[in-house]
Structures are given as structure tokens and as C-alpha cells.
Amino acid sequence: MTIKPSLRVVTGAALALLPASLMAHPGHGETGAMAAALHPWQGLDHLLAMLAVGALGWRAGGRAAWALPATFVGGMCLGTLLAAVGVAGFGIEWAIAASVILLGCLLALPQLPKASWLAVPILIGALAHGHAHGSELGIGSIPYFVVSTAILHALGAAAAWMAVRQGSLISLRLTGGAVAAAGVWLTLGLI
Prior knowledge:
By secondary structure, this protein is an all-alpha fold. It has helices at 5-16, 33-38, 44-60, 64-84, 92-108, 115-137, 142-165, 169-188. It has one domain (31-188).
């Protein structure tokens, strides 16, 4: 198995963009539109989950290409609203790390389950990610991180398209394994 040069370039660029902060919350102390827009990009947990959702949507194909990312965005908005009205979140960081593991494992599968089955873990993970956003940034942040999340979903879908176009579904599956491993690493950081 060889990875084509363009996939190496995309992978290298993605690694170069990795933030110094691995967990995107809490305690950054930033507020406002810019903080909300950058929030999904500032933690490996959110970044990997959102890219994986875009890749899963593209792999699932058809309506799932937009429905799975839309499910994530909707769930994230609901999680933010729950946090904003004071609904306590227990184990949110654990749920976020678990969502990264699960999304990576799903992406690594040789055959994806039906999109309706994929939507369930995507929605649950999105609720946790949204609650974390809402706890830190509040309800006014929704429009800003929704746009950032949609961009990350599109980048994940584009990376999946490029990998498969180059005849390298295995590299996409290996990427899923790497995402799951990163989720395990994030989980170990919570202990």
C-alpha cells in the first residue's frame, strides 16, 4: 500500500494545523464571536470528531452526505441550549472522548452500517460537544461555531472523497483507526 503524494500533502497540512490545546474546553477564558468561531478548531477532540463526521457522511453517500453532518450540527445546537438553560452535564469530557473513539472506529469499518444507525452515535456525541461549547461560550455562540463545524465537516468529506478517488479506501480506514487511537489517548488524559 502506498499513499499518493497529494494525500501526504493533505495529511501534513492537517497535522500542521493541530492546535496546541488538545481539549477545546473549558478554561480558555475567551468570549465573543471570534472565540466561538475558533472554538471547534482549538481542541483535538472537537477537530477529530467533526472531521470524522464529514468523512462518515461522505462514505455513507446519498442523503447521508449532508444528513449526518446536519445531525451533528443540530445535536450540537441542542447540547448548547441545554447547557445555556442550566441542564447539568455529567461526564461531558468523557462522552466527548468516547465520541472520538466511536467515530474513528466507525470510519475504520470496511462496511458502514445504515445511515440511520450512524446517526445515533453522531447525535449523542454532538450533544456532548454542544454542551461543552454552551457551558463555556453560551447560547450566543451558536451561529459562529455552527459555521466552523460545517467547514470542518466539509473538510472531512473532501478528505474522504480524495482518499477514495485515489483508490485508497484503506488509507481512509486507517485514518479512522488513528482517530480512534487519538480518542483513547484523550481518554487517558482524563484519568
